[in-house]
From TrEMBL:
Gene3D superfamilies: Cytochrome P450. This is Alkane hydroxylase MAH1. GO terms for molecular function: heme binding; iron ion binding; monooxygenase activity; oxidoreductase activity, acting on paired donors, with incorporation or reduction of molecular oxygen. Keywords: Iron, Membrane, Metal-binding, Oxidoreductase, Transmembrane, Transmembrane helix. The chain crosses the membrane at residues 6-25. InterPro entries: Cyt_P450, Cyt_P450_sf. Belongs to the cytochrome P450 family.
Length: 405
């Protein structure tokens, strides 16, 4: 009987504690600028807001565009967030050498290997030059236009048409994600995984890239010791990442082997990035380097396009007047009618639509597909806004306000 009495009093005592924690959570943590607690620093604020990370950081930057973030003591989590254009300019151009991507970044994004995202100095300069060369070639640009047109005409529009016919509700973000994934795979190594098909298949390679992205975000938003422990124990997000890596590596290795074989046989091959790299004698043709390069290119193009399109259509759904104005402007452009009776437009035609382009740019400004850019700090530096950065910190450039003007 006594134990029941103790349990009851424990429960009674727990209620005010829980109410107090709930009060703390609502009034100091969720949707509030970070609070710097003793010992744990701002980590509780970060964890409480991790689901709306970008909104939370953007709101915290509204006050003056700069924020020092301090994690738990000795965790090494020392970040400086800025959206001040003068700081961004300083970090990206005036004192560029002092802000490499840095070792922490490379560890977090290790799945991308030595691709352009993960390199600094000469290797970065070399890869940038080669990418610019590949992307500026006429054959590659024509290939981009053809791939986009094919996918829109043969996959996206028929899908939409069937959706309307059957009066179904669809997840537009998922559609755009599938569209950009298929397009990025074709442009990177000429393989169409066909994720945007009528039956919306689960493509293991696509799922693996998603799992890897989720694990990377987990790494970014937690102290390194957290994810390193998960990695050591082989559990949680790190377990998913390890599995995803196997699928990714195998899929890309097969695409590279197939392409090398086709080229050795003298067959006509797709003018994609992989072919362009294999045709360039200056570029190492080791499978490892090619894997890192095409995977980086694929990741760079995939989520940016789908995020940009999803936000644009979401913004339109909130602004009926803008939608009508765009439709009116589009009616003045020359239309192509596909064999299935769908309407498409040539890119050159759309180039002249001032209102449409401005609306799209505004959507990119408000909802940037790449809202954060990480930089390490090599030597202590004072930013134009007067804030001091010290060696070992990570500076994070947050876009919504950086591109305000
Ligand atoms: C709305 C679409 C896009 C946005 C907003 C965007 C934004 C960005 C940003 C902010 C960076 C970092 C720049 C830096 O650190 O200097 C970047 C880098 C890069 N992006 Fe994009 N991107 C988009 C689409 C694409 C697409 C479609 C591709 C390729 C298919 C691509 C390929 C790359 C590459 C290769 C880099 C690395 C460049 C470097 O490190 O010098 N991006 N992008």
């Amino acid at each position: 009987m006594a134990w029941a009495w103790f349990a009851f009093t424990d429960l009674i005592l727990c209620i005010p504690c829980l109410l107090f924690l709930y009060y703390l959570y609502n009034n100091f943590l969720v949707s509030h600028p970070p609070v710097n607690f003793p010992i744990v620093g701002m980590l509780p604020s970060l964890l409480a807001n991790v689901q709306q990370f970008h909104d939370w950081i953007a709101n915290s930057l509204l006050v003056n565009g700069n924020l020092y973030f301090r994690g738990p003591w000795f965790s090494g989590m020392e970040y400086f967030f800025t959206s001040d254009p003068a700081n961004v300019h300083h970090i990206f151009t005036q004192n560029f050498q002092n802000y490499p991507k840095g070792g922490d970044f490379l560890e977090i994004f290790e799945v991308l290997g030595d691709g352009i995202f993960n390199t600094d100095g000469d290797s970065w300069r070399f890869q940038r030059e080669k990418l610019q060369l590949a992307m500026s070639q006429k054959s590659f640009r024509t290939f981009i236009a053809k791939t986009t047109r094919d996918k829109i005409e043969n996959a996206l529009l028929p899908f939409f048409s069937q959706t309307v016919e059957h009066d179904r509700v669809i997840d537009l973000q998922d559609m755009f994600s599938r569209l950009s994934f298929d397009m990025s795979c074709i442009l990177s190594f000429g393989t169409d995984p066909g994720s945007l098909s009528m039956d919306l298949p689960v493509v293991p390679f696509g799922r693996a890239v998603d799992d890897a992205s989720a694990a990377i975000f987990y790494r970014v938003s937690r102290p390194a010791v957290f994810w390193k422990l998960l990695k050591f124990l082989g559990i949680g997000q790190e377990k998913k990442l390890a599995k995803a890596r196997v699928v990714i590596d195998q899929f890309i290795a097969e695409a590279i082997e197939k392409r090398k074989h086709e080229m050795n046989e003298g067959k006509h091959v797709c003018p994609d990035l992989l072919s362009s790299y294999l045709n360039d004698e200056d570029i190492p043709n080791s499978n490892e380097f090619l894997r890192d390069s095409v995977l980086t290119f694929l990741t760079a193009g995939r989520d940016t396009i789908s995020s940009g399109l999803s936000w644009f259509f979401w913004a339109l759904s909130q602004n009926r007047q803008t939608e009508e104005n765009i439709l009116r402007e589009l009616s003045s452009a020359r239309q192509n009618i596909t064999p299935k009776g769908m309407i498409t437009f040539d890119p050159e035609e759309l180039d002249n639509l001032v209102y449409f382009k401005a609306a799209f740019m505004e959507s990119l400004r408000l909802f940037p597909p790449v809202p954060l850019n990480f930089k390490a700090v090599l030597k202590p530096d004072i930013l134009p806004s007067g804030f001091t950065l010290w060696k070992g910190m990570l500076s994070n450039l947050h876009c919504p306000l950086a591109f305000d003007n």
